[in-house]
Design a protein that fits this description.
globular, binds S-adenosylmethionine, 3-stranded antiparallel sheet, 19% strand, 12 helices, 7-stranded mixed sheet, 277 residues, alpha/beta, 41% helix, 10 strands
Length: 277
């Protein structure tokens, strides 16, 4: 059965209320120019909750327990989750070229490297990182991969991607680290267990005052998420992440992002790559 849905309109006042909640809870800035985008994205929630308009949705958010119940479903629809395997590959080339013996201050062999992909979306970033680290050195590694959206994390855990999504992965990595679906009608690939077991996924909001990453990290990837935040929020997030970075560890941000004016113990080593001093 084909169902017809009427598109609910968002008034400017409703937009102000909703964008205010999104900013407060997730740090995501929604200027008025994004009103139509927000309107489209939130339609899904109205339908799922069988609500007739945004006034009812706002009423639900302000009802007792309403916001906490709706927070994560809302995050699923308001976040932009664009990602790719080997996205911004200069970061991975940098890791391949590092002298790991000197990084570890002795033989790298047998050492454990801890990394964090702090807005990992559907998993392409942490899986790429794991494959590159596996190829790069004789040391072992563990990756914590976190995101606000539970929906993308569910996809990340399955580690199943279409052939199209896996296209940026170099052939020898594909042959070594991916499993092919046996059904030729479904061109899907799955990240193999050797890589999957290196990555632990967890839901985490970068706005939380304390980010529990379970210890200090050698590498932190925080790429293509700062662009959704305003400058003070970007600085707060980077400050919190920096506190989780080991001295000498590296922080990677997205190519259209900049943190150079933040007063933090970070030294830029390349464009968008920083080292904790
Ligand atoms: C555009 S994707 C970037 C993915 C990946 N880092 C990359 O560069 O390909 C941005 C991700 O940030 C996440 N995100 C947005 N706000 C967040 C927040 N407050 N806390 C944690 N993750 C957030 C989104 O859910 C989304 O998956």
């Amino acid at each position: 059965m084909v169902q017809n849905y009427t598109l609910c309109r968002l008034t400017n006042q409703e937009f102000d209320t909703l964008s205010g909640i999104i900013y407060e809870q997730f740090g995501i800035k929604m200027p008025l120019a994004k009103k139509t985008l927000l309107e489209c994205r939130l339609q899904k929630r109205l339908r799922a909750l069988e609500l007739e308009n945004f006034a009812q949705y706002i009423e639900l958010l302000f009802s007792s327990g309403g916001l906490s119940q709706e927070l994560f479903p809302m995050a699923n629809v308001v976040t932009t989750n664009k990602t790719d395997f080997f996205r911004e590959s200069a970061h991975f080339d940098f890791l391949k070229s590092l002298n790991w013996d000197s990084y570890f201050g002795g033989e790298a062999k047998g050492k454990m490297l801890k990394a964090w992909s702090a807005a990992c979306s559907s998993g392409e970033e942490p899986y790429t990182l794991s494959m590159v680290l596996k190829e790069t050195g004789e040391f072992d590694h563990q990756i914590l991969a976190t995101d606000l959206s539970q929906e993308v994390l569910q996809k990340a855990v399955t580690a199943i991607y279409s052939e199209e999504r896996v296209r940026p992965v170099p052939l020898h990595y594909k042959q070594k680290y991916f499993l092919k679906n046996k059904d030729p009608k479904k061109p899907l690939l799955r990240v193999g267990p050797e890589i999957r077991k290196k990555v632990t996924f967890r839901q985490m909001n970068l706005m939380d005052s304390e980010l529990d990453a379970g210890g200090k990290m050698d590498l932190i990837f925080c790429r293509n998420v700062l662009i959704y935040f305003d400058r003070p929020t970007q600085e707060k997030v980077i400050r919190k992440l920096c506190a989780h970075l080991k001295v000498g560890g590296y922080l990677f941000i997205g190519h259209s992002e900049s943190i150079s004016d933040f007063r933090l113990p970070l030294v830029q080593v390349k464009s968008t790559i920083y080292r904790k001093s």
